[in-house]
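sorry for the late reply, my laptop died twice this morning and i had to redo everyting from scratch. anyway the thing you sent over, i finally got around to it. pasting the sequence first so we're on the same page, its 287 residues, then the predicted structure underneath. double check i copied it right bc i was rushing
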Amino acid sequence: MADSEVDEAAARLYGLRPDEFTAARDAAASEAGERSASRAIKALRRPSVAAWAVNVLVRADPGGLEEVLALAAELREAQDDLDAMALTALNRQRRDLVAALTRDAVSLAGEAGVSVSAAARDDIARTLNAALRDAGAAVAVQTGRLVRALDASGLDPVDLSGAVGGGTPGGGAPVVAAPRDDLAELRARRAAEKAVREAERGATDADRDLAAARAREEKARERSALLSERVSALEQELARVAAQADEAAAEAGRHAQERDAAAARAREAATRAERARAALAAASDSQ
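ok and here's the structure:
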């Protein structure tokens, strides 16, 4: 029961980003039902970026590993038959497949917000090559719980010590490769599955862009409404000021008329005063 609990926790934890692993592992250890399971979960090691990227690839694209195993079976058959031409063609396919799966792993890591260095990218390719050359490495990769990268060098079996978090792959059933006649069908299905994933990612991106566009549209409409209200208020204020200007102009006209009338009265008064002074002077002279 404890082993099952540890493997379940490991399966969940090794799907998390490396920077999320430690805190989630410690939380899972504290929540474990048995003390032995708690200790085993606590002992799980954080995966390298390369190992985590391979785990993500296996979880997102299990067909990719099936194709690796099918190609490995063909390579072994060609080696047993000493078929040089087949080996040359299959090795070319191996390089292309590893390169394609490595790109997919790096892309999936990027989508999760994890940057893969050139060294980690090389480790991903080495791990996939190890799965092609060694059945034990293939089973380890299939668990989706790799802790470190794998490397197949020489004729010795791939070193799997400490390579898998949780139960070791030796006790599990190995992955069964597709028959040779089904390899083309397998590749076609994997290509279709990849196309579906890419279409779904495209649809998700389109939905996100649509939501963002709608939010921008709503914001623009709100701003337009506010500005329209502001324009209306300014128009009302302009009408009020224009009316005041008209009233002031009318008042100025009235004051101008009053000024002209006052000026006429002043001139008339000045004329009468001049005449009165002349009359006074004439009277004085006659006496």
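The two ends are 152 Å apart (CA to CA).
thats about all i looked at so far, will dig more tmrw
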